Amino acid sequence: MSDATVTLGIGAAAQAAASLVNTQQQIRAGERARAEQHEYERKQATARFDRELQLEAVRHQRQFELRHLESDLRRQESLTALGTQTLYSTYPVPEGPGHLRAGLQLLADDLSELPPLLLFPPLAGAIEPQWAGLRSAVLAALRRTLGSGGLVETYDHLNLFPWPHAGLYWNDLYGVPTFVAQITLFRDTLELGIGGCHLGPAATRAEPLRSVLLHRRRSAGSWNERAVAELNARTPAGHELALPTGPDSLNRLELEVAARAVAAVITAAVDVYWLAGAVRYRQRFDDAVALLGPASLADWPADLGVPLDRVADPAYHLLTVARREAGRGRGAEALAALERSLAVLAHPDYAVAGPPFPPPPECAEHVRATDARYTEALRATLVAVTGVAGPLPAGPAAAQEVLDEQ
Fold first, then answer.
1. Sign (positive/negative) of CA torsion 94, 96, 98, 102?
2. Cα 305 vs. chain centroid, distance in angstroms?
3. Could you read off the pLDDT of 215-273 as tens digits, one per residue?
4. Contacts with 193 (C-beta within 8 Å, 6 or more apart), sequence order
């Protein structure tokens, strides 16, 4: 065998060995690639599984939160429905919040142009059979005393409610001068409480109910013809009362007397309101209380307890005070009120200052220059005061001369 043949055989063997080595390397590389691919896929699968777990946890949490929110929403809806039902079942105005205010705005866009509102809710307390019809009797008495002149707007389509009532105030009464008159009954006793809101320039938002009248039914034996005649002296025709002859007629009489008493006290409150803001205001209290008999007025202060510095027209108001004092037979007090009225007419500062008052000629000049409503009231006052006080002093006498000249 030649050297060339040996060399060729060695080269072929080397080439075969190299090919084998290369093949083995390729196999190992393929195995590594497959292993790496398998590891990559395993990691990807693990990552996908982890993501699925995370997404499932998120979905579970969100479903839990959604169920929780849905439960809260349903509970809130139930509470809202229950609250609305409770609100409407307990709200003072049966139609609900805002209904009363909307009705008032049909009367005037500017609610400040309306007279004060009088809320008259149902009777409270133990309502026994003898009080049946009292509320209607009070409303009728109020119409007789306050029905004309636009002094008050009465609203009685109400449920029983406590006062102050925040919902009623903010939804219906905010900014509206309002009286709340509540009657409470217990056996044979009637109690009237009056409160309200916005009843004066310096008034707080709401004024609580204050007891202003305690009225007790009388027995049949306490009535006689004279007492009934006194009640009928100022009673309108067709509304006269009769001496009770039995339980039914006694009950009718007692209801009417109670209604007149309540109406008189409410009228006094309305008068006090208007005295603070109206000029030449004719008070209705005297007409209302006269329906209770001539002795009833003596139980009330002649000035209704209103300080002169809170009265818009003190000179005119003092004439009313003088006539009330004269009606009680108190000549000195009547004369003092008359003299002070003439002084205030001359100088308004005398509403808060005392005597000495201006000289009679000066007062007489102001009487001559005043309006017809004051002179008409002054004429009636001079007649009433002269009847109980005798000869007039210089100031009122000078005013009388001026009126005689006119």
1. negative
2. 24
3. 998 887 888 888 888 888 887 777 788 888 888 888 899 999 999 999 999 999 999 99
4. 181, 182, 184, 209, 210, 211, 212
Sketch the domain layout of the chain as residue ranges: 1-90, 301-406
Backbone angles phi, psi at 219, to 5 degrees: -85, 165
Nearest CA to 292 among 239, 234, 243? Answer: 234
**What mean pLDDT value characterizes the chain?**
86
285 and 268 in contact (C-beta within 8 Å)? yes
Residue 340 and residue 347 in contact, taking contact as beta carbons nearer than 8 Å: no
Residue among 231, 195, 226 at smallest CA distance from 211: 195
Q: The pTM is what?
A: 0.77
Determine the length of the chain: 406
How far is residue 177's CA from residue 329's CA, in Å, rounded to a whole number?
A: 37
pLDDT tens-digit series, residues 162-201: 999 999 999 999 989 999 999 999 999 999 999 999 998 7
Q: Shortest CA distance to 211 belongs to which of 197, 194, 189?
A: 194
Cβ atoms 199, 207 nearer than 8 A? yes
